[in-house]
Design goal:
By secondary structure, the protein is an alpha/beta fold. It is about 40% helix and about 15% strand. The protein is built from ten helices and eight strands. An eight-stranded mixed beta sheet has the order 1-2-4-3-5-6-7-8, with helices on both faces. β3, α1 and β4 form a beta-alpha-beta unit. α2 crosses α3 and α4 crosses α5. The longest helix is centred in the middle third of the chain and has 27 residues. It holds the Pfam family Abhydrolase_1. Keywords: Hydrolase. Belongs to the AB hydrolase superfamily. Bacterial non-heme haloperoxidase / perhydrolase family. GO terms for molecular function: hydrolase activity. This is Alpha/beta hydrolase.
C-alpha cells in the first residue's frame, strides 16, 4: 500500500489516482472514517481529468494506530508531509466535517504555492463546543456523551451514528441505504479506538477562528440545513464571514452526510467552483 512516513515514524496511507501532471484534488475525511468515504467524489473527478488523492488520518483506516498526535497541529503537519512527498502544487483541498477543520488548519499554514482553492463540507469550523465566546455551540456534555458511547461499545456506537443522524436516516420518509451504514461501520472499525476517542476533543474544541482569517485562497463552504452532527447556524455562516474570499452554498434539508446521500447535487457544485 502506498504510504509516506512522517518525522515521528507514522505511516500515512494514501490513494493517488490519475495523471501526475493533472490538477490535484486532496480529500480529507471525517471522523471516524477513512479515505474510502471519498470513493464517489474521487471517481467523479477522476473521470473529469483531475488527479485525486485521499489519505487516512493517523489512527484511522490503514494509517498507523499511533498513541499520540491526535490533534489538529499534528493532523495538519501530516498533510504538509504528504504534500511535500508528492510535490503538490496549487492543489485543491476538500474536507468533510473533521476533515474540513483539518483543511482549514493546514491551508492557513501551507507553504506558498501548495494550495490553489479549498472546499469545506459540513465542516466543524469555526468551533463546535459551547462557551462564553461561542454561545450557539453544543454543550460539552454532548461530546462527553460521544466519548462515553465509544468506550462502552464502539461497535454498536458505530452502527447507531450512521443509522441515525449522520445521513438523516432517522428522519420521516428517509430513503435508507444499508450499504452506506455498513460501509460507515467498516471504515470506523478499521481505526484505533484511542485515536477516535482523542479526535472527539480535536474536532469539538479546536478554535479555527484565526486560521479562517489567515486564509487567502478562495474557499467554498457547503453545508446542509438539516445537519444533525454539525449544526448549520453555528458553523458555515460564521465560518464564511471570517474568510477573506469565502462563498457559502447552503443545501436546504440535506444531512451531514450529503456527500454520500446527494452526490448528484454536491459534486457538480464543487466542479463549478474548481473551474470558476
Amino acid at each position: 500500500m502506498p504510504t509516506i512516513t512522517t518525522t515521528d515514524g507514522t505511516e500515512i496511507f494514501y490513494k493517488d489516482w490519475g495523471p501526475r501532471d493533472a490538477q490535484p484534488i486532496v480529500f480529507h475525511h471525517g471522523w471516524p472514517l477513512s479515505a474510502d468515504d471519498w470513493d464517489n467524489q474521487m471517481l467523479f473527478f477522476l473521470g473529469r481529468g483531475f488527479r485525486v488523492i485521499a489519505h487516512d488520518r493517523r489512527g484511522h483506516g490503514r494509517s498507523t494506530q499511533t498513541s499520540s498526535g491526535h490533534e489538529m497541529d499534528t493532523y495538519a503537519a501530516d498533510v504538509a508531509a504528504l504534500a511535500e512527498a508528492l510535490d503538490l502544487k496549487n492543489a485543491f483541498h476538500v474536507g468533510h466535517s473533521t476533515g474540513g477543520g483539518e483543511v482549514v488548519h493546514y491551508v492557513a499554514r501551507a507553504k506558498p504555492g501548495r494550495v490553489g482553492k479549498a472546499v469545506i463540507v459540513g465542516a466543524v469550523p469555526p468551533v463546535m463546543v459551547k462557551s462564553d465566546t461561542n454561545p450557539g455551540g453544543l454543550p460539552i456534555d454532548v461530546f462527553d456523551g460521544l466519548r462515553g458511547a465509544l468506550v462502552a461499545n464502539r461497535a454498536q456506537f458505530f452502527i447507531d451514528v450512521p443509522t441515525g443522524p449522520f445521513y438523516g436516516f432517522n428522519r420521516p420518509g428517509a430513503e435508507i441505504s444499508q450499504g452506506l451504514i455498513d460501509n460507515w461501520w467498516r471504515q470506523g472499525m478499521m481505526g484505533g479506538a484511542n485515536a477516535h476517542y482523542e479526535c472527539i476533543k480535536a474536532f469539538s474544541e479546536t478554535d479555527f477562528t484565526e486560521d479562517l482569517k489567515k486564509i487567502d485562497v478562495p474557499v467554498l463552504v457547503m453545508h446542509g440545513t438539516d445537519d444533525q452532527i454539525v449544526p448549520y447556524a453555528d458553523s458555515a455562516p460564521l465560518a464564511v464571514k471570517l474568510l477573506k474570499n469565502g462563498t457559502l452554498k447552503t443545501y436546504e434539508g440535506l444531512p451531514h452526510g450529503m456527500l454520500s446521500t446527494h452526490p448528484d447535487v454536491v459534486n457538480p457544485d464543487m466542479l463549478a467552483f474548481f473551474k470558476g
